[in-house]
Amino acid sequence: MLHKFASVLFFKIASMPRDDQTKSNCVYMNQADITASGNDKFVDVCGYPFSILADERVAHGTLAMNGIQHKCCGVTTTTGDSVELPAGGFRPPAAIIVSAVLELEHVAASKRGGTVDVTQFVEFCMKMFEGQYFRDGQSVTVIQESSSYKFLAKFTATVIAGSSRYDEAVCGAVGQKTKLVVRSSERNETTAVNVPEELRPYQRGCFCGTGRLEMRHEVEFDLAEKWQNASVEDILNRRPTKLVVDPSVTVDLICCENSIYRSQRIKGFWIM
Fold it and tell me: For 183-188, which contacts have Cβ atoms below 8 Å and span 24 or more sequence positions?
């Protein structure tokens, strides 16, 4: 399925010792992994997606982190700044937001470049929303209305945020059109709960002061009859459904092909 990599939704950085513990839980990115290829690149980090955007101009050992504010390993960056790649590779930064990734290669199966059956597509979406990518409060309903399918998924995304400043982690969408400010649990400004077990080893460095904020999301897919015989490419290029977190924050659905995550980004909005 999604080969344990990701879900949408997207942010990060912190260099840490490359010991057995971190190696088993994290994917380190070395210079060879970070290239300006013209495609978005996603890497699984501790079960969450790390996104490297083609338009962030990765080159010569420097990664431009747009819309992210964090402090890691003595290096402070703000929106638009560049960060020198540490020798050990990168770890995610002060905030990680879980979101939705649609992996159309899965539903296309062996029909690469062929057509996607709408029923398979809906079934895949259901499996995705029932999976590990949305850990809390997810529920899924599929409604068939004559020639179209409406897929309504309600789920709780989890924001894991930490900041060396202890007061906030700023997560901005691409183009900085939307911003989500996550307040630190240190100041009791979030609905913080216990940090997930799998992230506890990382509650140091950039993860100090980590808290968790849960947000409700609703998304509706209207799969009209015209998509019944649509190619993977057709669906990848279609305009996405908007996921509404609150009146000021929206997110993208990102369609990816297999575990390489090289997908074309669907225009719209996403949480980063």
Answer: 184/209, 184/211, 185/209, 185/210, 185/211, 185/212, 186/211
Residue 265 DSSP one-character state: P
13 neighbors 258 (Cβ within 8 angstroms): no
Reported as type and span, the H/E element at residue 139 is: strand 136-145
Tally of structural domains, the chain: 1
Pairing of strands 249-251, 243-246: antiparallel
Q: How far apart are CA 206 and CA 21, in angstroms?
A: 17
Dist CA 28 CA 22 (whole Å): 9
Distance CA 191, CA 102 (A): 28
3-state secondary structure of 92: coil
Q: What is the pLDDT of residues 27-62, one digit of tens each?
A: 223 323 333 333 333 333 323 333 333 222 222 223
Alpha helices in 89-172 (DSSP H): 104-108, 118-130
Q: Which residues of the chain have pLDDT under 70?
A: 1-272
Give residue 231's domain range: 1-272
In degrees and rounded to multiples of 5, residue 260 shows phi and psi of -80, -15
Instruction: Using a cut of 0.85, tell me whether the model's pTM lies above it.
Output: no
Of 230, 255, 256, 252, give the one whose Cα is nearest residue 241.
Answer: 252
Return the H-helix or E-strand segment holding 232: helix 232-237
pLDDT digits (tens, 9 = 90+) for 118-131: 344 444 444 443 33
